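pasting for the record
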Amino acid sequence: MSKLTRNLSMAVAACLMAAAASAQATTTLYWAGGSSGAWDNTTQNWSTSNGGSANSAWVNGDAAQFGSVTTASINANVSAAQLNINADTTLTGSGAYTLTVANNNPAAGGAGQTLAVNGANVDFSTGYRGGAPNLELDSGTITIGGAGSNFDPSSKNWALTVNGGTLDASGATYGLRLGSASFNGSGEDATGVQNAGTVTIGGQGLQIGTGPGSTAATSSTAVSYTLNGGTLGLTHLNFGAVANSSATFNLAGGVVTVNTNTIAFDTGSSVGTEAFNFVTGNGTPGTLVLKNSSNTSGDWNFTSLTGITNSSFLVNGVAATSSDLSFASDPTLTGYTDISVATTPEPSTLAMFVLGTVGLGMLGLRRNATRR
């Protein structure tokens, strides 16, 4: 090889290495499109400097930074390394295009801010966690998943609100943790409210006040998920609380399906308040369906029963009685099998918790005539 050829080869290799390094670098682009505008690959609604003028089009793979109250319309398939917001931000769209966020610590922002999705498709490809702001879904689709992914926003006073659309967290390895041990300090309320739409939580399911294999939420917390309407599908439903804290699932409407036919009270109500609350209002509560791995109706199965009392099952916030709760193997049948809840479960009372009729799963509620 001649000296000239060798020098040319080295120069070409250097250029390729520089290009590769440049391609791996992540640049932050700052939204400069005003209170509303298009997010696509051509419109110059971005700036390369914070507070700069709109002089750049979006570049896929860069990090997006929103600094003021903004509505951005997703008008093309776009991808971002990270989504950061410092004020309420709404993502809209027709559903024809998808924003994909690659970083597993997306939507970093201060407490009290809300990321709302209204008609857009947003894919958090490796999770939604860390210092994430409140999450609101009005319509459209939010997907949360990927290997090792979390749905675990560890910020104080965090809230999830689903008014419609589809929230698909079936691929979230660690499920959704509300008020988990990843929080630090006290007063860390975390709530989920679903008024409509479809929510699916996979992995370790919905954990209210605890994370599996870890201590429960810090004291002085109020952690809850309220289903007012729509459908909620879970692999697991786990409760956990410590002294002076509460963990509650409120079934006020809609249908919740627990696909492992297990509801687990992780720490026992002796150290906190853990409750599955049937909220009737002026009508009847929603429907609870328990299914097994074969996707057929399953038996009731309660784990970690020590310390569980009738206060773990509420009707309108009041401890349930055997006349309140009834279970039907088939909703078309008129016969019910009542469950009575002992104050201190002994081995002999386990049979009253684990009902042995295969195919059981639809829950009906018979209210006392005097209870509202």
